[in-house]
């Protein structure tokens, strides 16, 4: 039974998920006409421009930074929990070392 579960785990998490996500990303990129490239100048303009009518609220740039911080922070907490569960404290230190290396290079 364990062999069957490991095989299905490898198939679903290895092949179907990775290639499925890549296929969906390529499909939407083509279907929407490379919107992430075409609309990049508008994205920069919208995020960096402060709204003129609402000075009491937060700017679009502050909203973007808050959203990114919550996603990165959640990913880090989840990664630490999984590293501790799967590999113990030694894996956690390796994970922290690699993460600091990549953050130091500005690649994350």
Structure characterization notes:
The two termini are 38 Å apart. Helix content is 82%, strand content 0%. It is flat. With 108 residues, the protein is mostly helical. The protein contains four helices and no strands.
Give the helix/strand layout.
Layout: H1 2-31, H2 35-38, H3 40-48, H4 60-105
Number of strands: 0
Biggest pleated-sheet summary: none
Order of helices and strands: HHHH
Quickly give the structural class.
mainly alpha
Rg from alpha-carbon coordinates: 20 Å
Number of helical stretches of at least 4 residues:
4
Outline the low-pLDDT stretches: none
What's the rounded overall pLDDT mean? 76
Tell me the β content: under 5%
Percentage of residues assigned to helices: over 70%
Q: Note the overall shape.
A: flat
Distance between the termini: 38 Å
Quickly list its features.
0% strand; flat; 108 residues; mainly alpha
Summarize the structure.
With 108 residues, this protein is mostly helical.
